[in-house]
């Protein structure tokens, strides 16, 4: 007699916010493993131990679920940049803290980070806009500090800030591959030194009263 496989136990009742968080956590694994196009709502519901109607109560469609994940990851990184800049008034330490943020994001939140920077759905305008926010809003926050410290124009400051953001997340992703053999701390120190030697070359203009 052939035995049918046991059905996966359904998850018990959870408060709505807890269920939403659980579904997001499961969906993150599926999207990172398979990409947006190959991932299915059926599998996400199965892994979460809920019925598809329950999943659709929280997220009307796969794109809604995906953009919720990307949006959360984007907000986390941007807020981290702002906190790094606010953590000290010493600009060299700000550079160090910002670089630390990018490397920590890669190492500690690798899945969410990959969803932002390695998305296979950037052709969708909503997703593209979310992904672009990481660079634009992080650079805007850094540019404020550069303008204040150097007296450069806003346009020049934004260009420098975008370069620092790119140095942070691109370098962090390269480090994650393990090819360099560097520890996270050593990689952060190396990147911070390079960034500071560049941005530190734009000192704040002195006024007559400073001379």
Automatic annotation (TrEMBL):
SUPFAM superfamilies: Homeodomain-like, Tetracyclin repressor-like, C-terminal domain. It comes from the Bacteria. Transmembrane segments: none annotated. GO terms for molecular function: DNA-binding transcription factor activity; transcription cis-regulatory region binding. Residues 17-77 form the HTH tetR-type domain. It holds the Pfam family TetR_N. Gene3D superfamilies: Tetracycline Repressor, domain 2 (1.10.357.10). Keywords: DNA-binding, Transcription, Transcription regulation. PROSITE patterns: HTH_TETR_1, HTH_TETR_2. This is Transcriptional regulator, TetR family. The lineage of its organism: Bacteria, Bacillati, Actinomycetota, Actinomycetes, Propionibacteriales.
């Amino acid at each position: 007699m052939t035995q049918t496989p046991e059905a996966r136990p359904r998850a018990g009742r959870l408060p709505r916010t807890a269920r939403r968080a659980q579904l997001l956590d499961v969906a993150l694994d599926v999207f990172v493993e398979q990409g947006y196009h190959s991932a299915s709502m059926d599998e996400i519901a199965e892994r979460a131990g809920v019925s598809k109607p329950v999943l659709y109560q929280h997220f009307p469609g796969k794109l809604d679920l995906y953009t919720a994940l990307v949006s959360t990851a984007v907000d986390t990184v941007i807020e981290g940049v702002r906190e790094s800049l606010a953590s000290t008034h010493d600009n060299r330490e700000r550079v160090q803290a910002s670089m630390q943020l990018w490397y920590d994001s890669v190492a500690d939140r690798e899945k969410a980070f990959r969803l932002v920077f390695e998305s296979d759905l950037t052709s969708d305008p909503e997703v593209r806009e979310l992904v672009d926010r990481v660079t634009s809003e992080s650079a805007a926050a850094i540019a404020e500090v550069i303008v204040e410290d150097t007296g450069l124009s806003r346009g020049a400051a934004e260009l420098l800030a975008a370069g620092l953001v790119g140095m942070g997340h691109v370098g962090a992703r390269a480090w994650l591959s393990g090819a360099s053999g560097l520890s996270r701390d050593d990689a952060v120190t190396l990147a911070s030194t390079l960034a500071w030697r560049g941005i530190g070359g734009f000192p704040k203009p002195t006024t007559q009263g400073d001379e």
